[in-house]
Amino acid sequence: MVQQANRNLGKVASQGSDDAVSSIDSLNSEDVQSFNGSVDNNTVESNNVKSITSTLSRVETAMSQVLRVKSLKQTVTDARDDNEITARNEEQARRTTLGRILTHPDISDAMRVATHTGGSIAEKLASVRPDGERAVREITSKAEEVSEIEQGLIEKEEEEKKYPPPDKGYAWVICVTELFMIITTWGATTSYGVFISISLNNNTFAGADPMNYALASSIAICLAQALSPVAMITQNMIGLNITIAMGTIINFAGYMLCSFCTELWQLYCTLGLMVGTGFAFIFNPSIVILSSWFVKYRAISSGVTICGAGIGGVAFALGAQDLINLESDYRWAMRMIAIVTLCLNCFVVVLMRERVPVKREVSRKSFKLQLKTILNYRTMLHWPIIAITFWFGMAIVSYIVITFSLASFATFIGLSETQGSHVTGIFNGCQAIGRPIIGICGDRYGKINTALIGNVIVIILIFAFFVNCDNSATLIGFAIVSGLVTGWSQLLNQAIMPDAVPMAEYPSVWSYENIIVGCFCLFSEVVALKLRDLSSSMPFLKAQIFSGFMVLGSLLFMIPVREWKIRQMIDSRLEDAKDRMEAIQMTSDPEKSRESLDAVSVRIERYQSLLTKSSRGYLRRLFYPVKA
Fold first, then answer.
1. Sequence-ordered list of residues with C-beta below 8 angstroms from that of 250, at least 6 positions apart, any chain
2. Shortest CA distance to 530 belongs to which of 542, 519, 520?
């Protein structure tokens, strides 16, 4: 009998989860009685006792496996149900102009809402978060009854017809114009690694150390971020095209004067202060225009625009290196960048325009209102905002370290300066491919989910790949793979941050985030080059580890944000489910109401279980596999 029972239990271990229960049932009462009789009569030998113990252990293991599989299947089913609810809510919100603004706001939409006065709806719009499903649904359901629609907050249909239509025609001209703008700003900036490498190897400025060269480029990137509030206020006061024209002139002067520099302080003033200021006045006013031109094709247009960083990085890095090889000096390469960026930015100034013209008011009252809206420090008192800001700041530090160190690292492992510039070009070119893919993944699977996966991938790439690069093949491989994913934070931050704050607070949060991230940018490459130890056999190891731990720290800041996001979603849907149950209980059809009531009851029970205030509840929310 023992052997027969063992054979029955063997089926439990070998069969799948769906058959496991039936296999366990095959242990009939006769088997159990045989065990009991054998034990009671003391006729079972010691090896049979061990067999019984092993049998019972296998039963317990099989049953626990069945329970785990069932729990996993139930979790997947629950997540699928919640993802379907998310899709329905998003589809419902997109049916109206107001819903599209609320669920996909940009900085210009937020500024209109924040500076709009009067009426209860204005207060509701100011306090709603884009991911607040109940609030968005409540407001959009009453949109046609709101008097503010006629007061300029949202254009009426007859007024909307006066402006160019979104998603077609001139919208694609704006898309290409934005591409040129990204090429002249971020694209040109990503080529700085070539200049740092040539300056380090040739001692271009007497007495300068690696920190001095890194500081000049870091100042430029810092100002590009930190001056964003100034650039936005200037745009709102004097107009979009005039602001971009100012930035174009300053940017051109910075690059051109840099080519005549002979001392370090001149390098700081030109490549640092002037280029950084021009960068800020070109990039920040332009980038907020794109979303107003696209609704249906917003993800595609953003992907095309973002390619500019990679395209510009490839073109400027390779072109600059060729001129450096030809002239044996960096100066004509810098003049080339000045002339090319000037020409492209002239197209940007002429072609860039707002889809819906904004009335400007140059007055002290208007300036105070703009300043109060953009620099309201109270908005930074919420911990999710701080966490997202530090996630972005630490991630961009790693990005800058990798971008500016590749060319120098290439010469360390034995490659020529030309080959080092090619590595940088490959890295930038892969960004042009990877960033649109990251954007599509963010739209489909959730921005925070994609951000966390990006963090994990980059951590693995740095510690397992970059640290161990010792020849051209491995470095090129790293440049390709890391180029596809390394720019994930710059792209996803533009979608994650607006969802975390009420619309009226977004301009302030956007401003302070850029200021804080600008401070991160200021020290990133300086610290990385300072960590370089030329006396070591692996001089870049400390900088590589520093970069990796920045991404790890970034990951730790984003993890609680996901749990908070899921908790907010479940809270909202629990209230929806309770409202739905009350509505079902009032229906007159008992058959239909019984089925619906059962489904809603299951949903309420699930949400209450997920909201349990315990460490287990926290982990369940954190790893709940839904779009976030």
1. 274, 275, 277, 278, 281
2. 542
Q: pLDDT for 327-373, tens place per residue?
A: 777 888 889 999 999 999 999 999 998 887 777 767 777 778 778 87
Query: pTM of the entire structure?
Result: 0.79
Could you tell me the end-to-end alpha-carbon distance of the chain, in angstroms, rounded to an integer?
55
Q: What percent of the chain has pLDDT over 90?
A: 18
> CB-based burial of residue 40 (10 Å sphere; 0-12 exposed, 13-18 middle, 19+ buried)?
exposed
Report the half-sphere exposure of 616 (CA within 13 A, side-chain side).
2
Structure confidence by residue, pLDDT tens digits, 606-615: 888 888 888 8
Q: Are 301 and 293 in contact (CB under 8 A)?
A: yes
Supply the Cα-derived Rg of the chain in whole angstroms.
30
The tokens describing 624, both together, are 């709940």
Whose CA is closest to 247, among 348, 173, 358?
Answer: 348
Q: For residues 409 and 411, what is the distance between their CA atoms, to the nearest angstrom?
A: 5
* H or E element at residue 510: helix 506-530
Is residue 177 within 8 A of residue 183, CB to CB? The reply is no
Distance CA 594, CA 121 (A): 38
For residue 208, give every residue at least 6 positions away whose Cβ sits within 8 Å of its Cβ, in sequence order, or none.
199, 264
Between residues 76 and 114, the one the model is more confident about: 76
What does each C-alpha distance from 71 to 24, 67, 68 come to in angstroms?
19, 6, 5
Flag the least confident range among 87-91, 178-182, 284-288: 87-91
Q: Indicate whether 466 pLDDT > 70.
A: yes
Count CB atoms within 10 A of the CB of residue 467. 17
What's 165's DSSP letter?
A: P
Distance separating alpha carbons of residues 154 and 171, to the nearest angstrom:
20
Region of residue 270 (phi > 0: left; psi between -120 and 50: alpha; otherwise: beta): alpha
Give 235's Cβ-side CA count (13 Å radius).
31
Residue-wise pLDDT for 163-185, tens only, equals 788 888 888 999 999 999 999 99
Kindly state the average pLDDT of the residues 482-504: 84
Greatest distance between any 2 Cα atoms in the chain: 103
Q: Which long-range contacts (CB under 8 A, 24 or more apart) does 492-496 make?
A: 492/438, 492/442, 492/447, 492/450, 492/451, 492/454, 493/388, 493/391, 493/392, 495/442, 495/447, 496/388, 496/447, 496/448, 496/451, 496/561
Segment 539-569, tens digit of pLDDT: 888 888 999 999 999 999 999 999 999 998 8
Assign 3-state DSSP to the chain and report helix, strand, coil percentages, each to 5: 80, 0, 20
Q: Within the chain, how many helices (H) and strands (E) appear? A: 30, 0
Q: What is the pLDDT of residue 24?
A: 40
CB 584 within 8 A of CB 593: yes
